Amino acid sequence: MTRHYLRGEAQARFTAARIDAIRSIGDLAQQQGCEFIVVCGDVFETNQLSRQTIGRALEALAAVPVPVYLLPGNHDPLEPVTIYRSPQFVRDCPPHVHVLTSSDPVTVREGVELISAPWSGKHPDTDLVGAAVSSALAGPRMPSLGQPVPDVCAQGPGSDLVRIVVGHGAVDVLDPDRANPASIALAPLERALADGHIHYVALGDRHSRTSVGDSGAVWYSGAPEVTDFREHFPGDVLVVDLGPGAAPVVTPHHVGRWVYRTMHREINNATDVAALARDLAGQPDKDRTVLRLALRGALGVADRAALAELLEEQGDVFACLSLWERHTSLRTHADGSELAELGLGGFLGAAAEEMHQQAQGEPVPAGDHALDLAELTEDDDPLAWEFSAEAPPDAQSATDALALLYRFSQEVTR
Fold it and tell me: The Calcineurin-like phosphoesterase domain covers which part of the protein (predicted)?
């Protein structure tokens, strides 16, 4: 998985962490005495990946000490160019790693069965999970979903069989698109759980750990490594204890190492800038932290320059440090005494005076030193400038330019 805001080696470490998560899951499975692992779709980000990524994933899977069952999802469906039929995957896939390629029930061992719903394309037009469960339960042993269970079936040889449904996609009660024909219908699944036809529903697609419905037996495990700020309880896997006639016991375990964090601060003076500096310095595991700042307030030229320098320095040690543009509103007010301290002369002094006049809302006389001011943008880079020849000079651009000039002048003095 790539993230455009991770620059340089941070993206490489983010990629490596996703491979490391496979090994962590295998270690946890062994520690907890798990019999097997299911991965509920989107094992891979896309069906077009480098040989290196596929090879490293298969090497990590080879080290997992229990059987692993992989479900194709919307990112890696069983389309003609699927990664699961590529020569490299077929050749190098470890023997204990199994791809769930059809809705036919798969026997894990005697008494345990998987009912899976793999994706064959990116845009299914039906509830794949519901169809798979209905098909599996429509045989001579069991009726279709929602139908009463005859006594002979409930008492028959299949009564001790544990069925685990493995699916991918949005459950209808959580899908914002109420007309989506591919939404997974929750009510029939909960009826089948209550009737004892199935015993647990393992779902993928949501990156946040989520329990769905009232049964306690329908879960999204979430992504084993965080991928976005919007996720709740990411970085977990679920250890599930199952047996016939008993409710599942579901225990989350955290395996993720990366963190996405948002920090809101009011910044109005040097004391506030210093407090932010202490907060940033105190953040743990900066090399694995993606931090966005929502800053509001008004600063003098010197304090704005100090803030810019702080963000630049800390940006070098965080995996990513950025300003949250939609929630950041920082104004800069110009104080002539701050510029006087710099003792600028010649062209720089004249330019500073013009910027100061513009910052105070005074008209700037045309002449040899008239400036075309740039606009400072509050994007991922706290010192990113976007020049627009058509944009007229304005007070805020002038104060931002003064802050940058102040900072550069201070650096030269040092």
Answer: 26-93
